[in-house]
Amino acid sequence: MEVLSVASEVFPLIKTGGLADVAGALPAALKPHGVRMRTLMPGYPVVMQKLKKPQKVGGFTNLFGHPASILAVDHRGLDLLVLDAPELFDRDGGPYLDKRGLDYTDNFRRFAALSLAAAEIAGGLLPSWKPDLVHVHDWQAALTPVYMRFGPAHGMPVVLTIHNIAFQGQFGPEVFPQLALPPEAFSVNFVEYFGDVGFLKGGLQTANAITTVSPSYAQEILTAEFGMGFDGLLTARLSHLSGIVNGIDTDVWNPQTDPHIAANYGPTTLKKREINRKALSEHFGFDNAPGPIFCVVSRLTWQKGMDVLAEVIDDIVENGGKLAVLGSGDAALESAFLTAAARHPGRVGMVTGYNEPLSHLMQAGADAILIPSRFEPCGLTQLYGLRYGCVPIVAHTGGLADTIIDANEAALAARVATGFQFSPVSAASLRQALRRAFATYRQPKVWARLQAQGMKSDVSWDLSAHRYADLYSSLLAKG
Question: How far apart are CA 146 and CA 205, in angstroms?
Fold first, then answer.
C-alpha cells in the first residue's frame, strides 16, 4: 500500500508541536503493516540545510506565481518529498510566524501551495510514483482533498487527521480568487465558512475519513465546548470520524539508551533516577531539601492551563515540593513563572524557550510532570512521563484521560494506576490532585509501583499503526 502523507512539520527536521512527532514516527510504525508512506513537507531553510543529496523528481513552472521543485530524499529512514519553493518558504522566521511572532500574511498561499502540490502528486505528477491513498494533517494540508475533488486524483481516498481543532486556517473571502479553485468551491459544501475561506472546513467536508489523536477528543469535538464551531459539521459526518491515540518513538524516548540524560535506567533500576534528579537540580539551581520535583514542559498558554498552575506554585513550595519549568508563550504567564522563581530561589526554576535535550533530562529527573490542559487532543508529554517513570498529573480531558489511569484507591490496590487525574481545570481541583500526589510520594514503595506501572504502559505506535493500516485498507476496499 502506497500512502502520501502531507504535513507542515516533521521531526527531526522541524518541530513546533506534537504534529511533527506524529508525522515523523508514523511512517516507520506503518512499515510492518505493509504500508509504504512518503511524506510531503515544505522546504523551509532549516529543512533544506539538513538534506543530503536530494534528487529532483518533479516540479511546477508556476505554483501560485513561482517555480517550485519536488525533491526526493531519505533522511534518517524517512522517505521524504520536499516542496522546494523559496519564494514561499525561505523565510527568516519559523514555519508559520515571522520574527515578530506574527502570522505571515501569505500563509493562505504558502499552505495552499503545499496542498495543491500534494493533489498533483496524487494525480500522477511524479513519473515514477503514485500513491493509493493520501493522509493529510491539520489545516495546513487540509485543502488537499478539495484540490483532489477538482483534479485528476478525484476519487482517491483521503484521511484527514485533526491534531488540534482550535487551529483552523480561516482567511477572508478575498483570498479565494488566489487559490486556483473553481468558483463552485466557494460554497458550504467545500471551503466557504461563514463567508470566509476555511482550510480545515474544506478538508472536513471532503475527506473520506476524519481522525483525531485520541478517542476522547473525537467525542469532545462533537460538543459546542470543544468543537470550536465545527461540532455541527462533525456530527453530520459522525460515521466518518474516529479517534486513534498517538504513540511516541520509543527509540528516541528510551531511558535505557537516552544520550541526553545523566544516567540510563529501566523499570528494575529506578534508583539510578537519583543521578538524573541531581543533574536536574543542578541545572535549575535547586537546593538539596527532600521532597518531590514537579516539572512542566509546555507552551505557556491558557489552553495548557498554565494560568491555573501559576496559582498553585506557592502551594507546591509550602508542601515541600520544587517546580522546574521549560517553556515559553504568553508574556504574562512567562512573567508569572519568572516572578515565582525569583520569589522561591532554590525551589522554583524556569528555562524560557524549548530545549529538546533538557526536556529529556526533566522527564528522567523529575518525580512528576504537571499537565493541567483545558483541552488536549492527545498530548505526548504524559506519554514521555510514563516511559521515564515521571508520574503524570493531568486534567481529565482528551488524550490525557485516555492514557493515564488515575491513582484512586481501587486502581492503587489493583496495581494498575499510572498517574493522577483531576477535573475541572481549576486551582482548587489541581491543589487536590497535588495533595494526593504528595501523600503518595510519602509512601516510597507505593510511588515506586506507580512509576514502574507507568513504565510498563505500551506508549509505542504498534496498536495505533495497526488501526491506521486497517482504516486505509477499509477505504481502499470501498473502491
Answer: 9
15 annotated to bind ligand:
yes
Render pLDDT for 36-74 as a digit per residue (tens, 0 to 9): 999 999 999 999 999 999 999 999 999 999 999 999 999
| Beta bridge partner(s), residue 297 | 326
- Which DSSP state fits 292? P
**Model confidence pLDDT, tens digit, residues 142-157:** 999 999 999 999 999 9
Q: How far apart are CA 221 and CA 238, in angstroms?
A: 11
What is the per-residue DSSP string for 165-232?
A: TT---EE-GGGGGGS---GGGSSTTTTEETTEEEHHHHHHHH-SEEEESSHHHHHHTTSHHHHTT-HH
Domain identity same for 10 and 143:
yes
- Residue 423 located in a structural domain: yes
CATH number of domain containing 361 = 3.40.50.2000
Q: Distance between CA 8 and CA 69 in Å, rounded? A: 16
Beta-strand relationship, 391-395 and 293-297: unpaired
The pLDDT value given to residue 354? 85
DSSP 127-173: TT---SEEEEEHHHHTTHHHHHHTSTTTT--EEEEES-TT---EE-G
Where b means 16+ CB within 10 Å and e means fewer, 399-418 reads: bbbbbbbbbeeebbeeeebb
Q: What is the DSSP string of 23-51?
A: HHHHHHHHGGGT-EEEEEEE--HHHHHH-
Tens digits of per-residue pLDDT, 252-307? Answer: 999 999 999 999 999 999 999 999 999 999 999 999 999 999 999 999 999 999 99
CA distance 411 to 438: 17
C-alpha cell at 261: 540524560
Rounded to the nearest 10 degrees, the angle between the axes of helix 381-388 and helix 444-456 is 120
391 pairs with which residues across the strands?
A: 368
User: Residue 18 — very low, low, confident or very high, per pLDDT cuts 50/70/90?
Assistant: confident
Same domain, 197 and 290: no
